[in-house]
Specification:
The complex is a heterodimer of chains A (156) and B (167). Chain A is mainly α. Chain A contains eight helices and no strands. The termini of chain A are far apart. In chain B, helix 1 (5-16) crosses helix 2 (19-35) and helix 6 (130-137) crosses helix 7 (141-165). The chains are: A mainly alpha (156), B mainly alpha (167).
């Protein structure tokens, strides 16, 4: 039997898993052989279990008013006052990217009037154009007689 | 809050032994967490952090109420020798806990100093390592060992006394 009895402090450290591994192994082996130390260890373990059992028996739910109060305080922390938000909006780190984004948007927005987007269709333009085209087609019924076939040519 | 709220509240209750004080302590601790969120170091234990806040707030409150927080452990709190008195191991703790032991343990915990209550709760109920306890209460691992040993000795003495005096 290992006659080096662990001190009471070491038994508590063994109970809490705080001994270095070599010492932990020695105490573990000693407790298996020494009845007096085993009883002392059991007393320490019983005290710990007593505390845990007592803690379990009086466990309580977190009151809702605490949760609500913390959420309210957190909301105030997360959402600063209006003047603070306005001030922070004019910080360079916000202002520069915002100005750049605005400039890009304006550039493409203005140029979109010329290059992008669908051009509105004026139906009257196409009808009139079609009518004019029909009127100038050489072989249509309504087409005017070419100048080469007029009497002016025959007389020439 | 959802994850640590209940545990923090119960820890605060074990320190204060009072629901109203535990509520105030928990509320103030979480508000401080929200305000100081940026100072939290990723990779460290959030539970240790909030327990440290609770512990400090509790000490501040005790100082405010009593004028001075009792850092010193009374002379009478010397650790009890093993084998003296009735060993708790031979008592059927689980079956007596609800009706028989709850009150003596509760009284014994109330009679510990705030510092002693902190340390036994952190070690035995909350299962923190000595290193973590040292970080929470602000002392070295060696001090945690000695304080814990004295606190457990005092607790054993008080529990035994209250069990004997209970009807």
């Amino acid at each position: 039997m290992n006659q080096t009895h662990p001190t009471p402090e070491q038994l508590v450290e063994y109970l809490h898993g705080e001994l270095p591994p070599p010492r932990d192994a020695v105490v573990h082996a000693h407790l298996a052989e020494c009845t007096a130390c085993a009883r002392a260890y059991e007393a320490e373990a019983a005290l710990s279990e007593l505390l845990r059992a007592h803690a379990r028996s009086e466990e309580r739910e977190l009151p809702y008013r605490v949760v609500a109060a913390v959420r309210d305080a957190a909301a105030e922390t997360v959402a600063p006052p209006a003047w603070e938000r306005i001030r922070s909006a004019f910080r360079p780190v916000v202002l520069i990217p915002a100005a750049a984004a605005l400039a890009v948007a304006l550039y493409f927005g203005m140029s979109g009037r010329h290059w992008g987007g669908a051009t509105p269709i004026n139906a009257a333009y196409y009808v009139n154009n079609h009518a004019a085209l029909q009127a100038t087609t050489p072989f249509s019924e309504d087409a005017p007689i070419p100048a080469t076939l007029t009497s002016d040519d025959q007389t020439r | 809050m959802e994850r640590y709220g209940k545990a923090t509240y119960n820890f605060a209750y074990r320190l204060t032994r009072n629901e109203s004080d535990a509520s105030d302590l928990t509320q103030e601790a979480f508000i401080r967490v929200f305000r100081a969120w940026r100072s939290f170091k990723p990779g460290t234990s959030f539970r240790s952090w909030i327990y440290r806040i609770v512990t400090n707030l509790h000490r501040d409150e005790l100082r405010r109420r009593k004028g001075r927080y009792q850092e010193e452990i009374p002379e009478a709190n010397e650790p009890q020798q093993f084998g003296s008195g009735r060993p708790l191991a031979v008592q059927p703790i689980e079956e007596y806990m609800e009706g028989y032991l709850s009150e003596p343990v509760s009284k014994a915990l109330s009679e510990l100093t705030a510092e002693q209550r902190e340390i036994v709760m952190l070690a035995d109920v909350e299962d923190f390592s000595y290193q973590e306890i040292g970080e929470i209460v602000g002392c070295s691992v060696g001090t945690v060992r000695s304080r814990l040993h004295r606190a457990r000795g005092q607790l054993r003495k008080l529990v035994t006394r209250h069990i004997k005096s209970s009807p």
